[in-house]
Amino acid sequence: MCAKQCRYAVLLLASGWAVLTGLAMAMSAPAHFTRGKVIPVTTAQVGVKGATLHTGDTGTPVDGMTVEIPAGALDQSATVTVSYNTGTLSLPSGESSGVFLGLAVDRVKTFQQLVTIRVHYDAKRYANTVVVGYAIDDQDRLRAVNTDSQDSRTGTVAFSTFVPLLLTWVYAPVP
Protein backbone atom coordinates (compact mmCIF):
# COMPACT_ATOMS: atom_id res chain seq x y z
CA MET A 1 0.00 0.00 0.00
CA CYS A 2 2.84 2.43 0.79
CA ALA A 3 4.46 1.79 -2.59
CA LYS A 4 1.40 3.09 -4.44
CA GLN A 5 0.98 6.12 -2.12
CA CYS A 6 4.72 6.83 -2.15
CA ARG A 7 4.84 6.73 -5.98
CA TYR A 8 1.88 9.14 -6.05
CA ALA A 9 3.61 11.46 -3.56
CA VAL A 10 6.86 11.38 -5.59
CA LEU A 11 4.90 12.14 -8.78
CA LEU A 12 3.18 15.11 -7.10
CA LEU A 13 6.49 16.32 -5.72
CA ALA A 14 8.16 15.99 -9.13
CA SER A 15 5.26 17.78 -10.84
CA GLY A 16 5.34 20.54 -8.27
CA TRP A 17 9.09 20.87 -8.70
CA ALA A 18 8.69 21.16 -12.48
CA VAL A 19 6.06 23.88 -12.07
CA LEU A 20 8.18 25.75 -9.54
CA THR A 21 11.27 25.40 -11.73
CA GLY A 22 9.30 26.70 -14.72
CA LEU A 23 8.00 29.64 -12.69
CA ALA A 24 11.47 30.42 -11.38
CA MET A 25 12.87 30.39 -14.92
CA ALA A 26 10.06 32.59 -16.20
CA MET A 27 10.49 35.03 -13.34
CA SER A 28 14.31 35.03 -13.33
CA ALA A 29 14.57 37.31 -16.36
CA PRO A 30 11.99 40.08 -16.04
CA ALA A 31 11.79 42.85 -18.58
CA HIS A 32 14.51 45.40 -17.95
CA PHE A 33 14.52 48.99 -19.20
CA THR A 34 17.73 50.97 -19.30
CA ARG A 35 17.09 54.70 -19.55
CA GLY A 36 18.78 56.82 -22.15
CA LYS A 37 18.60 60.47 -23.09
CA VAL A 38 15.21 62.25 -23.26
CA ILE A 39 14.74 64.02 -26.61
CA PRO A 40 11.81 66.50 -26.82
CA VAL A 41 9.91 66.34 -30.12
CA THR A 42 6.98 68.72 -29.70
CA THR A 43 5.72 71.03 -26.98
CA ALA A 44 2.38 72.84 -26.79
CA GLN A 45 0.36 74.87 -24.35
CA VAL A 46 -2.92 72.95 -23.83
CA GLY A 47 -5.93 74.37 -22.02
CA VAL A 48 -9.16 72.96 -20.63
CA LYS A 49 -10.59 72.66 -24.17
CA GLY A 50 -7.96 70.01 -24.95
CA ALA A 51 -5.88 69.52 -28.08
CA THR A 52 -4.37 66.93 -30.37
CA LEU A 53 -0.58 66.93 -30.62
CA HIS A 54 1.07 65.41 -33.68
CA THR A 55 4.71 64.40 -33.69
CA GLY A 56 4.84 64.83 -37.47
CA ASP A 57 7.72 63.71 -39.66
CA THR A 58 10.80 64.59 -37.63
CA GLY A 59 13.01 61.60 -38.39
CA THR A 60 12.59 60.34 -34.82
CA PRO A 61 11.26 57.03 -33.46
CA VAL A 62 7.95 58.74 -32.56
CA ASP A 63 7.12 59.99 -36.07
CA GLY A 64 3.45 59.94 -36.98
CA MET A 65 2.14 59.55 -33.44
CA THR A 66 -0.69 61.59 -31.96
CA VAL A 67 -1.65 62.44 -28.41
CA GLU A 68 -5.33 63.32 -28.04
CA ILE A 69 -6.08 65.32 -24.91
CA PRO A 70 -9.88 65.71 -24.71
CA ALA A 71 -11.77 68.69 -23.34
CA GLY A 72 -11.83 68.50 -19.55
CA ALA A 73 -8.69 66.34 -19.23
CA LEU A 74 -6.84 69.34 -17.79
CA ASP A 75 -8.38 71.65 -15.21
CA GLN A 76 -6.00 74.48 -16.17
CA SER A 77 -3.64 75.37 -19.00
CA ALA A 78 -0.41 73.36 -18.96
CA THR A 79 2.69 72.79 -21.06
CA VAL A 80 2.57 69.34 -22.69
CA THR A 81 5.77 67.82 -24.05
CA VAL A 82 5.99 64.75 -26.26
CA SER A 83 9.46 63.25 -26.31
CA TYR A 84 11.25 59.96 -26.77
CA ASN A 85 13.86 58.18 -24.70
CA THR A 86 16.94 56.62 -26.33
CA GLY A 87 16.93 53.76 -23.79
CA THR A 88 16.78 50.04 -24.43
CA LEU A 89 14.46 47.27 -23.30
CA SER A 90 15.34 43.61 -22.83
CA LEU A 91 12.46 41.15 -22.65
CA PRO A 92 12.08 37.51 -21.62
CA SER A 93 9.65 37.02 -24.55
CA GLY A 94 8.03 38.98 -27.34
CA GLU A 95 9.73 41.71 -29.33
CA SER A 96 10.26 45.27 -28.18
CA SER A 97 9.05 48.09 -30.41
CA GLY A 98 12.24 49.93 -29.51
CA VAL A 99 10.16 53.09 -29.15
CA PHE A 100 9.87 54.87 -25.80
CA LEU A 101 7.39 57.75 -26.03
CA GLY A 102 7.39 60.29 -23.24
CA LEU A 103 4.32 62.34 -22.34
CA ALA A 104 5.06 65.03 -19.75
CA VAL A 105 2.64 67.67 -18.49
CA ASP A 106 3.75 70.49 -16.18
CA ARG A 107 2.07 70.38 -12.75
CA VAL A 108 -0.19 67.47 -13.72
CA LYS A 109 -0.05 64.05 -12.09
CA THR A 110 -3.40 62.76 -13.39
CA PHE A 111 -5.77 63.69 -16.19
CA GLN A 112 -9.47 64.23 -15.52
CA GLN A 113 -10.36 62.35 -18.75
CA LEU A 114 -8.64 59.53 -20.62
CA VAL A 115 -5.87 60.69 -22.95
CA THR A 116 -5.39 58.62 -26.11
CA ILE A 117 -2.01 57.95 -27.73
CA ARG A 118 -2.07 56.58 -31.30
CA VAL A 119 1.01 54.95 -32.78
CA HIS A 120 1.88 53.20 -36.03
CA TYR A 121 3.52 49.80 -36.47
CA ASP A 122 4.50 47.57 -39.41
CA ALA A 123 1.31 45.49 -39.76
CA LYS A 124 2.84 43.13 -42.34
CA ARG A 125 5.90 42.35 -40.24
CA TYR A 126 3.81 41.86 -37.09
CA ALA A 127 0.80 40.17 -38.71
CA ASN A 128 0.55 37.38 -36.11
CA THR A 129 1.04 39.49 -33.01
CA VAL A 130 -0.89 41.48 -30.49
CA VAL A 131 0.49 44.91 -29.66
CA VAL A 132 0.68 45.28 -25.87
CA GLY A 133 1.34 48.70 -24.35
CA TYR A 134 3.35 49.32 -21.21
CA ALA A 135 4.10 52.32 -19.05
CA ILE A 136 7.63 52.39 -17.66
CA ASP A 137 7.60 53.54 -14.04
CA ASP A 138 10.27 55.43 -12.06
CA GLN A 139 11.93 52.13 -11.09
CA ASP A 140 12.08 51.12 -14.81
CA ARG A 141 9.43 48.41 -14.36
CA LEU A 142 6.76 47.78 -16.98
CA ARG A 143 3.08 48.24 -16.14
CA ALA A 144 0.38 47.31 -18.64
CA VAL A 145 -1.69 50.17 -20.10
CA ASN A 146 -5.11 50.08 -21.73
CA THR A 147 -5.12 49.18 -25.39
CA ASP A 148 -8.15 50.84 -26.95
CA SER A 149 -7.84 49.38 -30.44
CA GLN A 150 -5.46 47.67 -32.83
CA ASP A 151 -6.13 47.93 -36.56
CA SER A 152 -3.97 45.50 -38.50
CA ARG A 153 -5.21 46.92 -41.83
CA THR A 154 -3.83 50.41 -41.13
CA GLY A 155 -1.07 49.39 -38.71
CA THR A 156 -2.31 51.61 -35.89
CA VAL A 157 -2.86 50.98 -32.24
CA ALA A 158 -4.33 53.28 -29.60
CA PHE A 159 -3.50 53.31 -25.90
CA SER A 160 -5.25 55.31 -23.19
CA THR A 161 -3.99 56.71 -19.91
CA PHE A 162 -5.05 58.87 -16.99
CA VAL A 163 -1.42 59.80 -16.21
CA PRO A 164 1.54 61.33 -18.03
CA LEU A 165 3.94 58.47 -18.74
CA LEU A 166 6.81 56.88 -20.59
CA LEU A 167 5.13 54.44 -23.00
CA THR A 168 6.43 51.52 -25.00
CA TRP A 169 4.85 48.51 -26.61
CA VAL A 170 5.73 44.90 -27.22
CA TYR A 171 4.77 42.63 -30.09
CA ALA A 172 3.43 39.49 -28.42
CA PRO A 173 3.01 36.43 -30.67
CA VAL A 174 -0.47 35.02 -31.06
CA PRO A 175 -0.47 31.30 -30.20
Would you kindly provide a written description of the structure presented here, covering whatever features stand out?
This protein has 175 residues and is an alpha+beta fold. It folds into 2 domains: 1-28; 32-173, Sandwich (Chondroitinase Ac, Chain A, domain 3). Helix content is 15%, strand content 43%. It is globular and about 45 Å long.
Give a quick precis of the structure.
The protein is α+β, with helices and mostly antiparallel strands. About 15% of the residues lie in helices and about 45% in strands.
Spell out the key features of this protein.
5-stranded antiparallel β-sheet, 15% helix, alpha+beta, 14 strands, 2 domains, 1 helix, 43% strand, 175 residues, 7-stranded antiparallel β-sheet, Chondroitinase Ac, Chain A, domain 3
Strand-helix topology:
Blueprint (H helix, E strand, L loop, with lengths): L1 H27 L3 E3 L3 E9 L4 E4 L11 E4 L8 E8 L2 E3 L4 E2 L4 E5 L9 E6 L8 E8 L5 E3 L1 E6 L4 E6 L3 E9 L2
Antiparallel strand pairs: 1-6, 2-5, 3-4, 4-9, 5-8, 7-14, 8-14, 9-13, 10-11, 10-14, 12-13
Our Rg estimate from Cα atoms comes to: 21 Å
Kindly state the percentage of residues in helix. 10-25%
Order of helices and strands: HEEEEEEEEEEEEEE
**Backbone shape:** globular
Q: What is the correct CATH architecture of the largest domain?
A: Sandwich
What's the total count of β strands? 14
Uncertain ranges: 4-28
Task: Outline the biggest β-sheet.
Answer: 7 strands, antiparallel
Count of individual helical segments: 1
Strand content: 35-45%
Average pLDDT works out at 86
What is the fold-level CATH name, i.e. the topology of the largest domain?
Chondroitinase Ac, Chain A, domain 3
Can you tell me the CATH class of the largest domain?
Mainly Beta
What class do helices, strands and sheet pairing give? Answer: alpha+beta
What is the count of distinct domains? 2
